[in-house]
Predict the structure.
Amino acid sequence: MNCDSDREAELHPGVAAAGPLRFQITLTSDSRLLSVVRGAISEFAAISGFDDRQCRRITLAIDEALSNVIRHSYQNRCDRQIELICQVRSNCLEFAFLDCGEPADPARFCAQPLDETGRGGRGTHIIRQVMDEVRYDRVPEGNRLRLKKYLPGAEALRAANESRRGEIG
Amino acid sequence: MKTATRERPGTTIVDVAGDIDMGTSPELRRTLLNSLKAAPRLVVNLRDVRYVDSSGIASLVEVLKEARNTQKRLVLFGLNRAVHEVLQLTRLTKIFEIRETEEDALQA
């Protein structure tokens, strides 16, 4: 068992005991597939230990991210490719999206205030509210978006460890 | 997603069922905007909506704005937990007129 697995066992015994959880979906940029992905993500979050409410929120955030790829990167073309890698890390669920579309403009993320009654822009707010870490990179292959959601208990354990380190230091 | 329309005196009721996402929200938007033309009050039954994303919420916001612009009313009812949560995440619970039941919505 490597160090990552040890940490997984500490944080999330059920997951670590069964081995690392990871799956990858390659889909075309067709909105009819969104419901298929939602089903998979909801189950993935559930077996990773999240409660029903968090599963719904995680599923929503992933759906919003995929919708943004279809809408903005691929400008609603339905025949392009999106890769989504989902895995349990030592303290979080990590979702990585890769597409080959138009570069995203990070300045437009959450550019619109949430209380406005405009038509768009709420998806990125939802993603930022639900996820603990959001990172966008333009890479040679295209656009890469990484979303992390801390596993239940991971945040508290990390805070406790940081506090302990502070006391030792 | 499926929709069905019922008429009551002074009110059009649209029953919505299924998932509202970026693929289905344009149809919902069209249906609701057309239904809004038919009566001074539009009541939307969301009881059988399993899922809604930000594009679905945006469609409801657009219909609400059109209702306000034309001095009509939009009333939502039957919101389940999933729909409520998305409205809360987008901080839009207060802009909509929301009722628990169809009877409440029709008396609103």
Remarks:
- Chain A has one domain: 3-168.
- The first strand of chain A starts at residue 22 and ends at 28.
- The helical segments of chain A are 3-11, 13-17, 34-47, 52-73, 122-130, 154-168.
- Residues 60 and 131 of chain A are 10 Å apart (CA to CA).
